[in-house]
Automatic annotation (TrEMBL):
Transmembrane parts of this sequence: 21-40
The family this protein is said to belong to: Belongs to the ExbD/TolR family.
Entry membrane topology: Single-pass membrane protein
Highest taxon above the source species: Bacteria
Subunit field text: The Tol-Pal system is composed of five core proteins: the inner membrane proteins TolA, TolQ and TolR, the periplasmic protein TolB and the outer membrane protein Pal. They form a network linking the inner and outer membranes and the peptidoglycan layer.
Keyword Membrane: yes
Function: Part of the Tol-Pal system, which plays a role in outer membrane invagination during cell division and is important for maintaining outer membrane integrity.
Protein name, entry field: Tol-Pal system protein TolR
Annotated gene: tolR
Keyword annotations of the record: Cell cycle, Cell division, Cell inner membrane, Cell membrane, Membrane, Transmembrane, Transmembrane helix
Amino acid sequence: MSVRARRGKRRKLKNEINVVPYIDVMLVLLIIFMVTAPLMNLGVDVQLPQSNAKSITEQKDPVVVSVDRDGNYFLAIEAGSNEAVDTASLQAKVRALVANNPDLAVYVAADGAGSYQNVMDAMALLQNAGVEKVGLMSQPRQDGTP
C-alpha cells in the first residue's frame, strides 16, 4: 500500500510560463537604450535651406561667414562690412560674439563652385568657437525649378 500511496501523491506538471526572466531582460534592454540614446546625436545642427523657402526676418543682422572658392574666410558682423580673416581670428571673433550672445545666429555662405570640404571646415571652426546652430545660405533659383 505504501507504493500505491506514493504514486497518488505525485505532483502535477504546471502548464504556465514563468515570465520573470523575460521581464528582467526587457528592463535591462530598456536601461541600455535609455543610456545610449542621448549619445547617438553626433554632429553639428544644420538648418539646410529648402527650395521656395521664405526668407528669415530678424531684428538684428546675423553674423555671416563667407567662404570663397579657394577656401578663404570672410566675416560680416554688420551688413556691408565684410573683412578677410584667417582661421584663428575667425574663431576668436566668433567666440567673443557667442560669449556676449549665446543665441547668436551664424550663417555660412559658400561659393557654389567651391569644395564641400571648405564648408565643412567652416562649420567645424564655428562649432569649436561655441556656435550651437549654424545655417547655410543660398539664393533662390531663377528658373523656378524646385
